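During the second year of the project, the team shifted from modelling isolated chains to modelling whole assemblies. The rationale, set out in the original proposal, was that interfaces cannot be judged from single-chain predictions alone. As a representative example for this report, we include one of the complexes processed in the last quarter. Its constituent sequences, exactly as entered into the pipeline, are reproduced here:
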Amino acid sequence: GQQLNQSPQSMFIQEGEDVSMNCTSSSIFNTWLWYKQEPGEGPVLLIALYKAGELTSNGRLTAQFGITRKDSFLNISASIPSDVGIYFCAGKGGGADGLTFGKGTHLIIQP
Amino acid sequence: SAVISQKPSRDICQRGTSLTIQCQVDSQVTMMFWYRQQPGQSLTLIATANQGSEATYESGFVIDKFPISRPNLTFSTLTVSNMSPEDSSIYLCSVEGGGGETQYFGPGTRLLVL
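Output from the structure prediction step:
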């Protein structure tokens, strides 16, 4: 089946630093999604990408859908304490497909 | 985005028993999905539930262990049957959004099996 490789597994950064994480897949997806999950909650959708090469921003977050349709990255600029959490990439094929998730990137911010 | 609620939010159960998890959404949706998130792990799709038809299960998940109901366009249930400690996980429902290209998640049900 499809597999997503997400890196890094964890990040320890200083407040104010920029963050970059990425996902690669063994096969193509039609949609790439980025979620954030905080303790005790379900994943919250941050950014959705619908076509190859698409670059989309949501405030301090920027994500891109790779040209090959097998990869995506998420950047967070000027990190703040509330950015702490686990960030998941997810890929979706066509039609009624469910999502395939990466293993997550744990973001920890040191004041 | 849709507002999704799940009941119970958490439970502690004895092995060999069954638990039914409810998922309610505030708008009508065609597709609902159930995921499992084992401790410290990512999310894995269990099944897709389309109203009016049998759920479609992913490899490694079977209907006898995880029966699903989808009686209408705003509600679904997932039952975890004959539980063992290995079933201790967070169970999440999600609904389609964005023209079917995105999904929104409920808060999850945290299950501990002793």
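Chain A has a mean pLDDT of 93. The longest strand of chain A covers residues 85-92.
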